[in-house]
Amino acid sequence: MKNGTERILWFSWVVVLMMLIALLITRSNSYEFILVDLFAFAALTTLTAVMPIKYRTHMITVFQWVTLVIFLKFGLVLELLVTQFVLFGALYATGLNKTNFYRIPLNSLIFLLTSLLAACVFFLFGGQTNQPTTLATYNDFAALIAYVLTFLVANHFLIYLVRRYLFALKRQQFFKGVLIELATAALFFPLTIILIISYEQMGINAIGFAGLTFIGITIVLQLYNQSTITNHLLKEVTKFGYELNACLTREELFEQLSLKLNAFFNWNQLLLYEVNNEKVALLYAEDQKGATVHLQLRNGESYSRYALESNSLMVAGARKEWGKLGKELPQNLESIIAIPLRRKQEIVGLLTITSLKQRSFRGNQIMILEIMANMLSIALTNVKSFEKTKQQSEHCPLTNLFNFRYFEERLKATINQEKEQPVSLILLDLDHFKKVNDTYGHQSGNDVLCGVADRLKRLTPIDGVVARYGGEEFVILLPNTTEEEATFVARDIWDELRTHPFVIQDDLTDAREIEIIVTASIGVATSSINEENNMDDAVTLIRKADRAMYNGAKQQGRDKVASFNEMKKIPHF
C-alpha cells in the first residue's frame, strides 16, 4: 500500500472516531443507567473478537453477532464505538504487526461502513433500537434478517473492492466467502436471538450464560478446523514423503523441499545443513526475496548450532526470544525454527526456517515439520548414497576421472545435441608407460597416472570432459570445437608433459624421490559430414581419433600430436 493512501486511511479513521466519541459525550447522560450492562456486552464482544475461526484461507469473526445485540439494545453509536475498539483484539489475533498497522484504520472503516449500511436497511424495514424487545417487534424478523444479510454482503463487497483496487488482487473468492459467512450466520444468528430474549428476561446474567455458549461453540469450531487442517497437512506430508523418496539428486530434493514449505508455512529464509561428526556445512539455502546467503552461514549460525548441541527442536516466535543466538541472520527476521534431522539416532543434518512475521509457526505446523524432518533425513541419506554409487559407477577410482562407459554415453548425447556443430576428441596414450611400472613399481606408475589426470583437467576447457580410456590412455571430449582449436589444446598438453617432470618415489630400490619425464602420443579428430551426408556418430569419431594417434603419432616415433585430417595428407595413409 502506498504511503499517501495509508495516511488518508489513518486521517479518515481518526476523524470518524472523534465524531463518534463526540456523539457519545453529547448523549452520555442517557447511558448512565446501562453502563454495567454495556461493559458486560463489551467484554463478551472482546472475548469473541480475540478468538477468530480460520477456515482454509478465510478468517471468520463472530464478535459482530454480539455487537448486533448492542445495536438493538443500546443504539448505533455505541455499537460503532464498541466495534472500533474490539477490532484491535481481532486484528492482533489474526497477525497484526508493525508491517501491517494499516489494517487498523482499513478494517475499522470497512466495519463502520458495513454497520451504517446495515443499520439504514434495518430502519427502512421498520426496525427500532433502544426499545423493549419482543419477537413481534421486528415484523417477524424482517428488519433483523435484512440487517444481517446487508451486513454480510456489504462487508464482503467492501473487502472485495479494497483487495481489487488497493492491493490489485484480481482473483478472489467473493461468493465462496459470502457462503461461508451465511453458514456461520445459520449457526450464530439463533444464538443472537436467544441472547436478546434472555437479556429481556434475565438482565445481565444472560450475558454470562450466552457468553459461555458463544465461546464454547467458537472453541469447538476452532478445534474442528484445526483437526481438518491437520488431517489435510498429514495427507500432504505423506505425499511429500513419496515425492522425496523419488528424488535421485540433491537438486530435485531441494526443489521438492522448497515447494512443500511454500504450501505448508509462511517462511522467508531456508537453511539446510549437513552434519558429519558434529561438523556443520551448508547444503542449501534459499531466500524468498532472492537475497544471497552470507558466507559466515556456510558453517552454520549460532541458533542452528545450539539446536545441534542440545539435540532438540528449537522455536521462537519473536526476535526478542532468540536471546544472543542467530546474530548472523538478518535482523528483520522474527520467527525461527531449527530442527535436527536424525537417521537411526544419529544427527545427519539441520533444517532451519525463518520468517519475517511473528508467531509464524504454530502447533500443528511444528508437528508437521517434525514429520517432514524425519522424511527429509531419510531422503537425504538415500540421495547421498545414490550419488556415491553413481559417482563410483561413472568415475575411475584411481584418477577420479570419468570412466569410458560414462564418456561414451556423454559423447553420444553431445553429438545428438550439437547436431551440425563440430565435436572434437583428443585421444592420448602415454609412451613406454610399462617401463615406468617395471623400473619404479606399480604404485609409482599409479602416481604418474593421477598426475597426468590432474594436468589434463587443468588444461582442458571448462566445457570439456576428461575420461580415462583404459590403462595409460586418456580421452578428452570438446563440444563445439573445431579440429584446429582442439589441436591447440592437444599441443598444450603435449608441451606440459614433455617439459614438466613428475616427482615419484622409486619403490623398487631405495624409495627415494626422483623426477621423470613422461611423454605421450596424441591423436585429434573432429566430427564431419560423411559420404551419406550424415554427421559422424560416436564410434566413427573415436576410430578417427584412434587412427590419428596410432598412425600419425605412435608410428611416426611417438611424443607427437597428430590430427586426423592432417594425417590423411601423408602419402602412405
Could you name the key traits of this structure?
15% strand, Alpha-Beta Plaits, six-stranded mixed beta sheet, alpha+beta, 17 helices, Beta-Lactamase, 573 residues, five-stranded antiparallel beta sheet, single chain, 3 domains
* Largest sheet descriptor: 6 strands, mixed
Share of β-strand residues: 15-25%
Please list the strands of the largest sheet in the order they lie side by side: 8-10-11-9-14-15
Principal-axis shape equals: elongated
**How would you classify the quaternary structure?**
single chain
Structural class: alpha+beta
Number of helices: 17
How far apart the termini lie comes to 79 Å
Radius of gyration: 38 Å
Relative helix content: 55-70%
What's the number of domains? 3
Number of E-state strands: 15
Instruction: Average the pLDDT over all residues and give the rounded result.
Output: 85
Please mark out the parts with pLDDT under 50 across 5 or more consecutive residues, or reply none.
Answer: none
Structure notes:
The mean pLDDT is 85. 56% of the residues lie in helices and 15% in strands. It has 573 residues and is of the alpha+beta class. It starts with a helix and ends in a 6-residue tail after the last helix. The strands form four sheets. Strands 8-10-11-9-14-15 form a six-stranded mixed β-sheet, sandwiched between helices. It is elongated. Helix 1 packs across helix 4, helix 1 (3-26) crosses helix 5 (103-124) and helix 8 (205-245) runs antiparallel to helix 9. A hairpin with a 2-residue loop joins strand 6 (335-343) and strand 7 (346-355). The chain folds into three domains: 3-230, no CATH class; 249-391, Beta-Lactamase (2-Layer Sandwich); 402-567, Alpha-Beta Plaits (2-Layer Sandwich). Pfam families: GAF_3, GGDEF. Its EC number is 2.7.7.65. Keywords: Membrane, Nucleotidyltransferase, Transferase, Transmembrane, Transmembrane helix. Residues 421-566 form the GGDEF domain.
